[in-house]
Amino acid sequence: MTKWNEICTLWAMNINECIALADAPMRSYWEYSAFGHVDICIVGAGIIGLSTALECRKRFPEASITVLEKAPHGHGATTRNAGFACFGSATELLHDIDAFGNDHALGIAKARYEGLASLLKRCDPAAIRYEQLGGGELIREHELAVLDRIDEVNAFAKHITGDSETFRVLSKTEQQALGYSDAVHAIIMNAYEGQLHSGHLHATLERLASEAHIRIEHGSDVQSVHETSSHASLQVVTQLGEYVLHAKRIILCTNAMLPSLAPKLDIKPGRGQVIVTTPIDGLPFKGAFHIDEGFYYFRSLGNRVLLGGGRNLDFDGEETVEFGHSEIIMNALESMLREIILPGRTFDIEYSWSGLMGFTSDKKPRVTSLSEHVYCAFGCNGMGVALASKIAEDIACLLSDL
Ligand SMILES: Cc1cc2nc3c(=O)[nH]c(=O)nc-3n(C[C@H](O)[C@H](O)[C@H](O)COP(=O)(O)OP(=O)(O)OC[C@H]3O[C@@H](n4cnc5c(N)ncnc54)[C@H](O)[C@@H]3O)c2cc1C
Fold this sequence. Notes:
The chain is an alpha/beta fold.
């Protein structure tokens, strides 16, 4: 059989299509025949893309699987987040119950909790620096009414953790030991909250992918997706030129950047900004904390503090896929640190960055097929560390046989 007949048969294409592909200027015959067509191609090497690749490997042990990623390592949310491994603060859960109803809110929170358990099965907790230090929520005067709903939120959370006292209000002495400002009137603790190192999590997923014989092609920016009756293909731009990659199944996992490949989906981008302090002598707290229904989140990072959030100060301005900082939010973050979280302490801001989240209208992720050969998974609503493993399991189950 000639090369063309072989490829035509394999990919059910006509000979002209095959020859047009071989004309792609940058690929040698070897490159084209070894890497030019795969069984499963995943676009985006964030936590969802990599977890999805690993779940696909479980379901299709013999399949060729490639992940295309435009950045040197991930460059969206996974390596730019806060590393909280949590399923929701008391005020956030109560907000979701009020906004969406009990069952819907329970569905969201349970998926996060189960997703975290699945993540910790997939990745060695020590490798991703997972620590279950607990977490809490700082309650200011205007939020004190939440304390009247502690029994309600505990009854709700019992369906998730099995514990009838998931949330506990600290005594005044316990609260004072944490050193927050007097503007904090109460602290609601949750022993089930954890935190991890997002860079090591990403590196661990990449290592697992490599061990599972999954190719990751960095520097591959997917421009568009096309479909024929037998398969789908991707137009890919690299620093060296363009090429086309064919796949029996394509799974789009590009999060906030999804609309450029698949428009008209229920997803909106949201930028998150983060700052990290210099080391602080005698930092009085450990763990992952929330303020203001989770719109602000901070955690200990060794003896530094990481703080992010403030998107609610300018929802419209932050609905963007542009990385960068806004003065209003950076100022608000720094004031929150100096006035509420670390009053009277001396520190500087040593790191600052931004990342991109993908939001859906009902806070639920979407795992769906767009056509016979193209699928997508998106919409972690700022909780992808918790949700990704579960989403990956769901999308791998959805894939039709190869
Ligand atoms: C500031 C911030 C703080 C957060 N904090 C937390 C937290 O503490 N806990 C938590 O659970 N969640 C948190 N999140 C959310 C969490 O990080 C995300 O939900 C999760 O990382 C989403 O993973 P993903 O794989 O869908 O997307 P991403 O990590 O964004 O991955 C998508 C990948 O696709 C690539 N890509 C995009 N377009 C293309 C293309 N055309 N071709 C090739 N590659 C492409 C991108 O480069 C990127 O690497 C936070 C997010 C942000 C931004």
